[in-house]
């Protein structure tokens, strides 16, 4: 399980992530992503990685949970 995160200093709001990961990301009225479900299941991870690699601003990332 990993978590989806946006670097707001980089995101330019073109919404590619919302198109590629519509079950997890929607868009606000300005086009910026709204992460509705940050937790990414193992089944969705390959699609999430595709969205991360497709982000033109390098603003989207997958974070691994901290180990305790
Ligand atoms: S694809 Fe990247 S730059 Fe575009 S809205 Fe998503 S996080 Fe922001």
UniProtKB/TrEMBL annotation:
Q: Which Gene3D superfamilies match?
A: 3.30.70.20
Pfam families found in the cross-reference section? Fer4_15 (PF13459)
Species classification: Bacteria, Bacillati, Actinomycetota, Actinomycetes, Propionibacteriales
Highest taxon of the lineage: Bacteria
Q: What is this protein called?
A: Ferredoxin
């Amino acid at each position: 399980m990993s978590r989806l995160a946006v670097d707001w200093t980089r995101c330019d709001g073109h919404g590619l992530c919302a198109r590629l990961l519509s079950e997890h990301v929607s868009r606000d009225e300005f086009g910026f992503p709204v992460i509705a479900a940050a937790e990414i299941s193992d089944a969705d991870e390959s699609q999430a990685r595709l969205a991360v690699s497709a982000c033109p601003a390098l603003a989207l990332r997958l974070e691994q949970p901290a180990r305790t």
